[in-house]
Amino acid sequence: MSDLSEKDIDVFIEAVGDYFKKTTQEAASVGVAYLARNAFPMNDFTGMIKVSADYDGILYFSAPSAMLRHLLTVMKETNQSDENLLDAVGEIANTISGNARKYFGENMVISIPEKVAGLPSSFNQQARYYAYVIIIKWKHYSASLIVDISRKR
Amino acid sequence: MKLMIVDDSNIIRNRIARIASDSFLNQKLPNIEIVGAAASGVEAHALFLKTRPEIVTMDLTMPEMDGVECTTLLTQVDPQVKILIISALSDKATAIQALMNGAEGFLYKPFTDDELINALLELVEE
User: Fold this and answer.
1) Which chain A residues have a beta carbon less than 8 Å from that of B91?
2) With the C-alpha atoms ordered B97, B98, B103, B104, is the resulting torsion angle positive or negative?
3) CATH of B2-125, one of 3.60.21.10, 2.40.100.10, 3.40.50.2300, 3.40.462.10
4) pLDDT of B6-61, one tens digit each?
């Protein structure tokens, strides 16, 4: 189970809001985090960052393909292949976790992104019993950030 | 000036290239010729030796060879090269390590178009 505090989770909420505001010049509506048990809202494409050293777990950013295509259009990216949609979820997950190190420090080591289309095959095994879920609404799309991270004891 | 872009994200490489090219057309930046883009530190080192850019934008978290190691290598080859780190890693220790290894500037992701233009401008005007 993620043992992060409300203050810890606010770091991720702030980071994902900042990503949309700076990249698209349009704020996203970022919901309050809730603890979920097994039923995680996964979408078409998912970017995953593994954290290690003083922390353990995975951060997931999962978004529908239509949202990612719209995001790439706003960024003036004309190549909207699946490869670039995977690139986008990986980059967003990487940016959010990288920004979180401002608060958590260098001892939250983050991996390079892993990216998958569809449900990550490892997700059921890797997600703990409870993880924080944050819903992001941008334009009329909905994406999710799943924070399945805890401090090592 | 010759610019090389290093980032493992294709969409970020394209975005940096587009902003740099548009900014020249809008006269916000002096003429910057993009001589190549690399997706890892290893690829960047090879491309650097071949194209000899004067400015490099460098990601930090990359496969094979990370941005700090690559920055060290490139500045050993050409101590005059100006390297702008563009990374999401927002802790102070990372920024200090990159600057101590030869980088001249640090721009945090996510960035706006103007933030990138200003960071490049500072680099070329030094």
Assistant:
1) 101-102, 104-106
2) negative
3) 3.40.50.2300
4) 999 999 999 999 999 988 777 778 888 999 999 999 999 999 999 999 999 999 99
